[in-house]
Automatic annotation (TrEMBL):
Keywords: Phosphoprotein. It comes from Ponticaulis profundi. SUPFAM superfamilies: CheY-like. This is Response regulator. It comes from the Bacteria. PROSITE patterns: RESPONSE_REGULATORY.
Amino acid sequence: MRKQWVLIVEDDKLDRFLIEHAFKKLDTSVEFDFAHDAESAWETLENGNRPTLIVTDLNMPGIGGMELLSRIKRSDQLKTIPTIVFSTSSDDADLREAYNRFANSYVVKPGDAGGYSRFAERVNAYWMQENRYPCH
């Protein structure tokens, strides 16, 4: 069983590349896995895999990020896993809906590679190093 790992749910190839590149630049032992859609992320979680953190896009084909968030937070086994929404949407309705579904954070995707690096650094510094989690 891995000590710390992040499940990143992202359907866009360019965003996956930028996120992966940003996290690989960090000097960390944290592992990062990608799910290309919410359904495959849900399957990973249902199979007993418990990441330290979930980062999910909202707008994806299929059930999408909002429904994934709802499923995670309704599950007694998964609801304590912190979940960050990482979306291009800055719409107040999306923001409110994500928090109504118990997202732990909502971040609008940056417009450049430097923004992705800052996001990765902050995720690592706060969620992986400072924040404490119950054992899963």
